[in-house]
Known about the structure:
Layout: H1 2-6, H2 19-28, H3 31-34, H4 40-47, H5 65-85, E1 89-93, H6 99-108, E2 111-116, H7 119-153, H8 157-173, H9 181-189, H10 205-217, H11 224-227, H12 253-271, E3 277-281, H13 290-293, E4 300-308, H14 310-321, E5 325-333, H15 359-363, H16 370-376, H17 380-384, H18 391-406, H19 427-437, H20 447-457, H21 461-491, E6 496-503, E7 514-520
Helix pairs in contact: 2-21, 4-5, 5-6, 8-9, 10-12, 16-21, 18-20
Amino acid sequence: DDDMFSSAFCENSEKLIDVHLFALAAKFYSLSSLGVCTPLEDVLEALKGDSEGATGIKPDEFMNNKKSHEVQVMSELVDSIANYCGIKQVIDIGSGKGYLSSFLSMQYNLKVYGIDSSNSNTNSAHERNRKLKKHWRAYQSRGREKSQSLEKANDRPMESEIKCKAISEELLNNANSLQNQDQVIIQDLVPSCGFTEMSTPATNTETEADLVTGTQSHETKLSEEVLAVLNVLSADAVEDFSSSHSNCGELCEEEKVQRKMTSLKSKARKSSESNLYFPLTSCITAETELSDIITDLEDCMMVGLHTCGDLAANTLRIFTAKPEIKAICSVGCCYHLLSEQFENQEECHDQVWGFPMCQYLKNKGWCCGRNARMSACLALERVAVGQMLPTESLFYRAVLQVIIEEIYGVTKSDRHVGKTFSKSSSFIDYVRRSLKKLELDDSKLPDSCIMDYYEKYKHRMSELEAFNMLKVVLAPCIEVLILLDRLCYLKEQENVAWSGLVKLFDPVKSPRCYAVIALKNQSC
């Protein structure tokens, strides 16, 4: 309790005197210890319907390990929520380069609008979709190679001929009775089996419709290694490949059947407009009218994977205000960029703040401050497994701060140093690069003066490291405050049926691992 942990600090000086007790207190007030989170498994179980999970390629073929982990876990949850709510439209706020958006569309057949404020990101999303088409062509090639190897491995041509003929007759006469996966692979992958006897395809409309239905219902049973992409890429990302296999002037009967089946499947896929992804560029605020951006807005859910700063708070406000949005799944990040209502004690009645959101903390005038919000961005779990803090770069930045205050008299600046450390060959090079970024004249600062500052503070590097480790220990407590503020805001809304915090990701892979999830009342 509070009395037990208060002895970590000196009663008179209020200085920290018991580091171990301080660490225990920080752990006690972290999300993992407070017991306020809903386990992901429980959420998925509650949302589970009769539909089976989608099968397809894993996202690690198209993105790095961290992003792959995030997209795979979050997309499964989003699909479960969408199915539970009976919706097919998803709005991805702060979609970036479209990793989550494209995967939701391709893997789960959802119609996704990815909205990002950066036109560069939107262009990158379009380019990424273009590259996915190339991957699809590669899978076609792999499929052809696989089919050829299957033929070579089969030394019984008469049995293969009988199988091929039987498949054709079964598909044409009763498409819904397809059972043999190996047969389907041969029929779908081998454009020309080299056999002359083949049944003539049925031509009546009813048979064609049955054929489409039967083919679609069994597509997910195809070989995952060869045809996994069929379940992943949307119709507009797939190019029909059957027409490139004919080397003779006239088509033999089996080729006609194959082309007929491929054409029917292609038409069936293209007839559904739900599996589309649209990257859009727009700046989202709490007052944004989504219908101005999305002309065919319908009942939908809103998602955000690492929405930055105030954007996470604004997505929650849009969710509660717009009746079309039935659910939300939001993972925030960049807490240091949050705007705070009570940080500067300035009266701005029209301003919409990122923190606090809930009425409880508003009534108390609660404020974190930038330093605390910066600490909330640190990754305790990574440090715990040996991924130590970049002490040298932090030391460089701290000494630079002393220089720009004492030499230039600058205490605040809208400009940022950024990732200058990784590009610098020495401390002198670091300082000069940083001063240029801050638009400060470095000609008045000789190298000897720069090194004097370095030598003056070098012996205090261990103190800096200890101080930053304490910040890391405290980080989960500050993150708790921000996330619980958002959860309490949702609990205060009358139109929200359920809301919760769910740990989605492995915090070592993805430190900002908690999602705020909410579902509207069915009547709303």
